Amino acid sequence: MYDFNYHRPTSLDQAFEIFSNSEDASYLAGGHTLLPSMKQRLAAPTDIIDLGGISSLEGIKSESDELVIGALTNHDEVATSALVSSEIPSIAKLASNIGDAQVRNRGTIGGSIANSDPAADYPAAVLGLGARLVTNKRVIKADDFFVDMFETALEEGEILQEIKFPKPDKSAYQKLPNPASRYAVVGVFIASRNGSVRVAITGAAPSVFRAPELESRLSESFSVEAIENVTLESELMNDDMHASAAYRASLCVVMAKRAVADMLKIS
CATH for 58-266? Predict the structure, then answer.
């Protein structure tokens, strides 16, 4: 690991100021991607800005028709929160199945979302619920946030502050986890709100995406049978040692059917 300067600011303004005055700085949240990258010398930032001292980035609260989660809130807090379980239980369930206990107690929701790993779980919830992502500069809609593999709409130095999830009428998340990492080989998040259905899929492609055909079918008839014969194109799916593109395309529909079945049990 290369030498670097370590900073622990106590406010967003201070963090951004340090970033702006550094040669090549990186923000540190849970560190599950940055630190291994530095150990392998795949990344060598001149300055590490630890966001852990900014208390305003943590916490969970309910605001009108939205559930608001601070970016520095760790996975275990989300998974065990009585408020999350009450307002949007699918998010609590999603968080409870991330990695292992060590990962859940260190990793943060904001770090996961800002990293935009193609197999991460939270991006499916963000896109599936149509969340709003609040930064130190602006508010970004979920549909505009995820750009590509490890790429988001966040600008240089911009800090994700909190995520505002609209409260759905019902929602569910189903995934096939990689047995070693617990990342999603394919994960499907479905949310229904005011008669509108959103379907977001992670793990299957280079970035999380919505599935319009599944959304259309489920909007017409919310049932497992409605999507029984849907076939997703495999050309843009990931194809690797864990699963072929064709298998992932098929798995998207399988996981979607399981999510729908879960939601029908809730109603």
Answer: 3.30.465.10
